[in-house]
Amino acid sequence: MRRLVMWDIDYTLLRGGGVAARAWKAAFTEVTGVAWRETPIFGGRTDLDICDGVFAAHGVTDCTPERFFARYVEIVETVRHEFAEQGALMPGVREVLQHLGDRPDVVQTLVTGNVPAVAAAKVAAFGLTGSFDAEVGGYGTDDSVRATLVRRSMERARAKYGEPFRPVVIGDTVHDVTAALANDAAAIAVATGATPAAELAAAGAHVVLPDLTDLEAAVRALTD
Ligand SMILES: [Mg+2]
């Protein structure tokens, strides 16, 4: 059975340098007319979930996520060049993607809390678009619960390729790990975000890597 490797974006593939967070805050005030007060914890959460939390924290009841996301995406499009200027790829990522990209037994995609257009802008900024079949990904507009994003990706891959895959999730937060486990997927964690390795292991990650600089260890974890 081939592997479906589902990559988280933020702090797994890359860091965006706060560009998306700034666009989020600007869009929020523009669309709702409410000054930004709360800074929620974005890590590992889906954009739908964050949106619900932000609206609730600001007492916003007359705006839909769809209307907010439309403006958010427009603003991100205007500043998308800043991802590569202010952000960075995480160490070893390009080599791991290239290696797996050459293997016929692996399909790589994105499972991210980001809305699809922002996910696409981030990976494009670092020249990674060709590494993923983004069509079979899971995104922050699919559902507020991250485990559902993993399930959607598995369903899309099966429908597109006409075969079941061995699912593998790679991410940097406890949310990625629990979303993988809820779908009986292999949970590979990288401690390149804010979550310590011990916490990722305690959450049930099958493998925890300090980062992706050890190509052999990363490939083994993702394809075993
Ligand atoms: Mg992440």
Automatic annotation (TrEMBL):
Entry-linked PANTHER family: PHOSPHOGLYCOLATE PHOSPHATASE
InterPro entries in alphabetical order: HAD-like_hydrolase_sf, HAD-like_sf, HAD_sf, PGP-like_dom2
MF term (GO), any: phosphoglycolate phosphatase activity
A single BP term in Gene Ontology: DNA repair
SUPFAM superfamilies on file: HAD-like
UniProt protein name: Phosphoglycolate phosphatase, HAD superfamily
Domain of life: Bacteria
Pfam families recorded: Hydrolase
Gene Ontology CC entries for this record: cytosol
Classification via Gene3D superfamilies: HAD superfamily/HAD-like, Putative phosphatase, domain 2
